[in-house]
Amino acid sequence: MKILQISTYDKGGGAEAVAWELFSAYRRRGHLSRMAVGDKRTGDSDVTTFPLDERRWPVRLSRRLAPYEGRIRGAWRLRRWLELYAAYPPAWVQSRLGRENFNFPETWRLFQQMENQPDVVHCHNLHGGWLTRGGYFDLRMLPWLSRRVPTMLTLHDTWLLSGHCAYTLGCDRWKTGCGRCPDLSIYPALARDGTAHNWRMKQSIYDDSRLYIATPSRWLMRQVEQSMLAPAVIEGRVIPNGVDSAVFCPGRKDEARASLGLPQDAAILLFVANAAKQNIFKDYKTVEACAIRVAARFRTRKVLLLVLGEADETHVFDNGEIRCVPFQTQRAVTARFYQAADVYVHAAKSDTFPNTILEALSCGIPVVATAVDGIPEQVEEGRSGFLVPAGDADSMAAHVYRLLSTESLRAAIGRAAAERASRLFGLDRQVDAYLGWYGEMAARNQTKKELAHAC
Description:
The chain folds into 2 domains: 2-52 and 87-242 and 428-454, Glycogen Phosphorylase B (Rossmann fold, 3-Layer(aba) Sandwich); 253-425, Glycogen Phosphorylase B (Rossmann fold, 3-Layer(aba) Sandwich), CATH 3.40.50. Helix content is 39%, strand content 16%. It contains 15 helices and 14 strands. The strands form 2 sheets. It has a 7-stranded parallel β-sheet, sandwiched between helices. The protein has a 7-stranded mixed β-sheet with strand order 10-11-9-8-12-13-14, with helices on both faces. The relative contact order is 0.10.
């Protein structure tokens, strides 16, 4: 089967990691697996970028500046400004009006230049990417594309359902047309309130589209069903993200700590999030408060909170410390941090179906997390971990303290966590679900072509 996935990056965290795992698994199974991305970060020959128009002088100048990225401060931002605003001046006007930019001719060129039409096009996040602001994919192409080839969207957040934000954080305006946005700073941020215009633009695109929709959680599918995307849905399915248990698996804690240079006698809590302290969708303050409260009660051992995905100085407090660790590109190294931890703590204001919780479960680590959005579908209360109200550091600390104080409980919940991850969230299970659906979509499309030809 010829499968084309579209993603912001080929390598990254969150949605990008999901797309890459699927891309790699399909190829291992013998399918013609390709990926088109906004920003290519690997040298993989089966990954292509959306081709910029080399005839435009800003694009040519950007290419000449490429060797200076990382050597001259600001070179990266200048290149993105040239590629977006200087090469396509209307994009600058749109951004000043608070309108999401869909003017990416590269999207059309990619498909026009494609020699072999894929059997299925599978889109992931269509916002953000290699530009200073905006995106990389022309959303207006969805009606044209979905009429020619089965087109699937896997939603990893709610951007496709709203006037601008990746997570609505309790606001319900997305159900009725947005406008009068209460927070334009939510990623992807806008300079001015153009949310009503953006909402209507997306609605008009979906009105002419026929799409297959997948979500990793039932919570997100319910959001789709209440949105302006619903009329475009041919079929929707909930397919949980998968975790590679060959990498993220239980391991010896003492060996993991020794390999990472971590103290053997400390009680270690772990929180994994990209730019954890700046990410408005996570809730670092609650995790920090939890660690401090646990350390104040748990006097038999020092408490160490590891924040993986954040570059910052170590913070020392009474009977404990918070140590930040930069994002790790090697999954095996990331798995070591889970294996070294006693408890995984995850506080979020909004989270669809975080991979980090799946990775912790798969490594046999008890999880204590906030009960928001899709997280309760991951953690079985009292068996693989505990759920607490959003922002409740006291409840989180109480559960963590209980786990640290009762080794038998911690071990039992860790075993249940690994079993749940293996049974419900295995990567092969996710791959099988998508491949099976692709086959149905392709067969349905072939039948439609044969009927049209017969007529």
